[in-house]
RNA sequence: GCCCUUGUAGCUCAGUUGGCAGAGCACUUCCUUGGUAAGGAAGAGGUCACCGGUUCGAUCCCGGUCAAGGGCUCCA
């Protein structure tokens, strides 16, 4: 890549036209043919700032393709600078970070074999095979070594090699994983990057030099299978993250710390919401009174909405004969997620992993007319699924959970309308919890499927039409549908932008057939109904965990387990405090009185830590005037409020299901 | 299930190079009767996760089991 700039006599031919696109602002420059991005950048530096400043460009996009800055430009092109501000820029930056990590690993542990080291959402990792586990101590040493390399400001250069040579080269360097990668690429040439004594197989691009790396932090080490295959060797994955400046890195670490503070497992214990106990078993939840109080509110709200939307409630058992699960096909398709059957009087019974077969049997319990449809059965159905021990996680991944499940049986001409109604119900329900941003996926027909192509097409188009009607933006996940029908998955985004899978709407061509469901049509013949599975919150346990983190434990008043705490200043106000609590209770407000022989400051502090929305302080003055002094969770104070005004305020806020005021 | 880390009072954590275990908070009692995020004192509380081994002696060393945490794989 050296001699493209050598002279031609024709001046015009030596010039190319470069269109610079800098955050949407374009300018066109005439440049010598073969100018490198680096030179181009210094030429444009007047506008973009110092080329080596922390947030300055470190790579570029030439006609949409990612390139290193030193790449010569040999024909007219549109060039876009790559900085840390863009997602692609972050990827390049952190990819270089991964290389720095690998270089440090090879320096400190020469015998280590490198696998892969890509950027990820909030950082990067490198998978490494080494004879002994890395310790936190090793991470500190690696960080020091990385910083040495950054200090040295080694140039990072790109080279190409025929694949055969590259295989030879990496074999010689004893990097078997790299060799395997090159062989699998099946391309004639591969590229590698060099920085000082370190060489890594890589497509690039990368930073121009190691000194451009600002701040880097290694976070953890974990096991990861080579190529994600549990039959392949377990490697060690070192996770890290990097930013252009120490401040930006610190801000990120602070955010991680904040997320840890609102971890639902931590808050669940501190706020006495739920527990998971060894004597009961992993993945099985105890809902404590305060958690249960919140669940009661969620369920009551859920129930009311479903009544309004024409659902009928059903209850079904927790176990059933194994034969039921054979008929439904779960034994064939879902066995590894089911608890083993138990034998009772010679027959095998199975703990239910799903509610659907029961709902089908209720449908089937008598003949249905086309006039009866749609039929909507809803149940808060508790199911048990066997999950491998390593995947359990607080409330978010458990072995026993309650689905807000429903099954809709309808005629083909009703599918679209029903889906649309489900979507409306979903956004209403989730919106009440402050979830208004969704990532929606429409999963289409997979390779293996049941049902006819016409059915699939009709159902898929019903799903997409319904989404469009509801003005919900979605992405298509081609081939990701379940074998029995297409589906919509809705992920909600919480305050921190994290997406959580909650709602799902699935069309099912399989179960109605397995159970030979039918309805009598207008033509007096039997027809197969279409079945729709749907859950809005998914699992109450999981949804509760999401809510805890979403609200950081400061539940909006309508959900708060204790909505108000009456705080008498001294024992002299005990009776008055009781009379206030009495009036609140009469309005269904969840109120407690802190009668302890403690100072008001302590009572307020503890109510605050329990994130109780309203603290009702009553002392001698209030008692005399028959008022209260209100303190909100936000710290706001309202003095001398009449009890009637207090009642109105609380009742209204609860009825409106207002947002969290934490 | 796999890799690594962890398991000491209800909670958060000290600690012992192997010699009958400690703090703060919480709890109980007493004093204090208070004005918007911690008043004071005393007391009670632990087979140091469980099982086994080494040892005169194990909470500590070794092995196993269970559970939790961070990941991988899988998913509501």
In short:
The chain has 662 residues and is an alpha+beta fold. Helix content is 34%, strand content 28%.
Question: What structural class do the secondary elements suggest?
Answer: alpha+beta
CATH secondary-structure class of the largest domain: Alpha Beta
In percent, how much strand structure appears in the residues?
25-35%
Q: How many discrete domains?
A: 4
* Number of E-type strands: 35
Give helix % range: 25-40%
Using the CA coordinates, give the radius of gyration.
32 Å
Summed up, the helix count is 20
Q: At the third CATH level, what is the topology name of the largest domain?
A: BirA Bifunctional Protein, domain 2
Any descriptors?
globular, disordered N terminus, alpha+beta, 662 residues, RNA-binding, Threonyl-tRNA Synthetase, Chain A, domain 2, Ubiquitin-like (UB roll), 20 helices, 4 domains, BirA Bifunctional Protein, domain 2, 8-stranded mixed beta sheet
Give a description of the structure.
By secondary structure, the protein is an alpha+beta fold. It has 4 domains: 12-83, Beta-grasp domain (Ubiquitin-like (UB roll), Roll), CATH 3.10.20.30; 88-259, Threonyl-tRNA Synthetase, Chain A, domain 2 (2-Layer Sandwich); 274-316 and 355-551, BirA Bifunctional Protein, domain 2, CATH 3.30.930; 564-656, Anticodon-binding domain (Rossmann fold, 3-Layer(aba) Sandwich). The protein is 34% helix and 28% strand. Strands 18-22-23-30-27-26-24-25 form an 8-stranded mixed sheet. The protein has a 5-stranded mixed sheet with strand order 2-1-7-4-5. Helix 5 (163-172) packs antiparallel against helix 6 (176-185). It is globular and about 85 Å long. Mean pLDDT is 91; it is low at 1-9. The chain binds one RNA strand of 76 nucleotides through strand 14, strand 15, helix 8, strand 27 and strand 30.
